Amino acid sequence: MPFTNQNVLQWLQLYAQEIHENNQYLTQLDSAIGDADHGANMDRGFKAVSAKLASIESADIGTILKTVGSTLVSTVGGASGPLYGTAFLRAGTATSGKHELEAADIITMLEAATEGVRARGKAQVGEKTMLDALYPALDAGKQAVAENAPLPQVTQRMAAGAEEGMKKTIPMLATKGRASYLGERSIGHQDPGATSSWLLLKSLAEVSGR
Prior knowledge:
The chain is mostly helical.
């Protein structure tokens, strides 16, 4: 079964709920190595996204994702707004005009989003950022598609890849963003951006498995 525009709306609503429920957790992670605002910023942004979804429910997937991106850019503070905003804008461009996605389309969407984050943040894997969750998710998804796995299995493996990548940020030395100012003291803390990225892919897997 393909992933429809209605599934995309369900995914975004579920992610908004996950962010709200994990607001304090994300803030706690960010208080150790950042500005202690990642949870609050993301929650505010996705509340604004949720409020707009009803007005675009018949739109194509690209339009939905671009609307999410522009909403995040205008409502989320800190680094999260530009990074997540760019991710959704690029994902929207990659799915322009589509009303349903096959597994390969979801990989294309995630790849465009990830490359957007990389370019915007000028970061690489291993620098303790959200890319450390996104790239392993992308690699796992590509492998699953190459094995002709069904879409729910593809997204589950992407979520598992993101979770593994997120956990690997704990022993990393941060060399990008606010966390890099801490130097060695950034070691031993899980990156909040990688954590919210895992929640994004976990939500995607849950909706595609319904």
